[in-house]
Amino acid sequence: MKTVETLNEGLKREYSLTITAKDIDARVEDEVKAVAPTVRMPGFRPGKVPPNLIRKMHGEALSADALNKAIDQGVKDLMAKEKLRPALQPAVTLADGYERGKDAELTVALEVLPDIAAPSIDGLKLERLTVPADDKAVMAKIEEFAAQMKRFEEAPKTKKAATGDQVIIDFAGSVDGVAFDGGTGEDMAVEIGSGQLIPGFEDQLVGVKVGDEKVLKVTFPDEYPVEDLKGQPAEFAVKVKEVKVPAASKIDDEFAKSLGLESLDKLKELMKDQVEQELNGLTRTYMKRKLLDQLAAAHDFDVPPTMVEAEFNQIWQQLEHEVSHEEDPEAAKAELEKDRDDYRAIAVRRVRLGLLLSEIGQAHGVQVSQQEMQRLIMQAAQQYRPEDRQRFVEYVQQDALAAAQIRAPLYEDKVVDFLFDKAEITDREVTREEIEAAIEADDDGHVHGPGCGHDHDHDHKPAKKAAAKKPAAKKEAVKEEAAEAAPAKKAPAKNAEAVPAKSEEKPAAKKAAAPEAAAEKAEPVAKKAPAKKAAAKK
């Protein structure tokens, strides 16, 4: 094989490879020998078909296989000979006009990973902000949970439903007088004002009472998951069977027992564990951001443009998806466009930090064990339908890139933990509000790095932005992750039923998760829950 370097510019490399016809012919011979025992031809015993007849019958396919294997091996030999570390899969192009029996002329183009000087991990100084999980915080979490466990009790039959009440209805939907699939239901519980159903549906239930029959006129949103209902005006004939009002939730031993726990003290114990986990998560988030800021400020090297572009596209697609569900998508998108350069700088930072953390991990023997990897794969497989999970596992086992994508977050966390152990850490007790403000502030989304002119150890105060703009916390949340690859796509979800549920909702405030025992014992609010919303596309 003849190799000639044709481009060496920054991190870009390009080579011209010539694979001789003799080499390809030798591989064809190997292919013939490999398939000969399985070839069947009239007049010949199995495995006794002459090689020249095999070439005549399967020459095209055998030559193609031989050429592909020669190219694969040629690229591997090139990488080894030139000691190249490709950033992404090399682009291999076969010259036009190639014919069987001739030399194969190839062009191999790639970007290589930069040579990173041994990263210095000396002198790291971090402040660990801690928040005590006191009784006040625990009770606040229990009250938050109690609000989620909202119960409703039957109201007098003359009671007119108001916002915050729950009505139990039967409904039948139609478009242009024709019923549609999934548009009929019985005993559906609707909390007026919850925003669970398509716009206008809940509002028209205000004032109804038991026994009322009413036709609700609504329009399906343009983003509704059922194609033939998108943007369509519809009518829902509803019959009101019950009106219920919120029941007061008293937090006492009886409340705890309703959740399957022995007492309120036991509930407090469980909730304290949860609060501690949340607060520890905030502490870690703050420390990690400060650590990454220090690493970014101390290291500067070129990063492969294709990796940056892939990272930016991943970030931008997610942001575009999010703004498409704002009240005014066009205005939100216009505001987002103003921050395009900031997010591209974040993509550069993430790629650089990803390479840096990888280099640190390799230099200090940080590893993800096979057992941990298997656990990660099985966890990722749970996102898929049961019938697709084994296929997903096999795909990851065969595809190195997919496996690397799943491995990356845990590997990054392990390297971060290693650096925490090496850093000089001082502790300071703060309130939850203070640590949340510290996390969200961080200089209004400024991308820290070499030459930015900032002292990266100082505390930043929150900077106000116009309400329509993405908050600084959004940029910080994007910036925090170093260089995680995009996850493999999920298997498509089954079609959503065409009931009047919204296809999307705006992000809600983070809800408290119920303790395991409570989750097991909680009773459903009504016989049938409102229809599920379609999952947001990844």
Automatic annotation (TrEMBL):
Q: Where in the cell is it found?
A: Cytoplasm
What GO terms in the biological process aspect are recorded for it? 'de novo' cotranslational protein folding; cell division; protein transport; protein unfolding
Q: Where is the composition biased (Basic residues)?
A: 461-472, 529-538
Q: Where is the composition biased (Low complexity)?
A: 484-501
Q: What is its EC number?
A: 5.2.1.8
Q: Where is this region: Disordered?
A: 439-538
Q: Which Pfam families match?
A: FKBP_C (PF00254), Trigger_C (PF05698), Trigger_N (PF05697)
A GO molecular function for this record?
peptidyl-prolyl cis-trans isomerase activity
- InterPro entries for the chain: PPIase_dom_sf (IPR046357), PPIase_FKBP_dom (IPR001179), Trig_fac (IPR005215), Trigger_fac_C (IPR008880), Trigger_fac_C_sf (IPR037041), Trigger_fac_ribosome-bd_bac (IPR008881), Trigger_fac_ribosome-bd_sf (IPR036611), Trigger_fact/SurA_dom_sf (IPR027304)
Does the UniProt entry include the keyword Protein biosynthesis?
no
Example of a GO cellular component annotation carried by this entry: cytoplasm
Highest rank taxon of the organism:
Bacteria
The residues covered by the PPIase FKBP-type domain are 164-249
In terms of Gene3D superfamilies, this protein maps to: 3.10.50.40, Trigger factor ribosome-binding domain, Trigger factor, C-terminal domain
Bias-annotated ranges (Basic and acidic residues): 473-482
Q: For this UniProt record, give its keywords in alphabetical order, as a comma-separated list.
A: Cell cycle, Cell division, Chaperone, Cytoplasm, Isomerase, Rotamase
What is the catalytic activity of this protein? [protein]-peptidylproline (omega=180) = [protein]-peptidylproline (omega=0)
The written remark on domains in the entry is: Consists of 3 domains; the N-terminus binds the ribosome, the middle domain has PPIase activity, while the C-terminus has intrinsic chaperone activity on its own.
For this chain, the family text in UniProt reads: Belongs to the FKBP-type PPIase family. Tig subfamily.
Q: Which PANTHER family match?
A: TRIGGER FACTOR CHAPERONE AND PEPTIDYL-PROLYL CIS/TRANS ISOMERASE (PTHR30560), TRIGGER FACTOR-LIKE PROTEIN TIG, CHLOROPLASTIC (PTHR30560:SF3)
Q: Which HAMAP family match?
A: Trigger_factor_Tig (MF_00303)
Which purpose does this protein serve, as stated in its record? Involved in protein export. Acts as a chaperone by maintaining the newly synthesized protein in an open conformation. Functions as a peptidyl-prolyl cis-trans isomerase.
* Descriptive protein name: Trigger factor
Natural source organism? Sphingopyxis macrogoltabida (Sphingomonas macrogoltabidus)
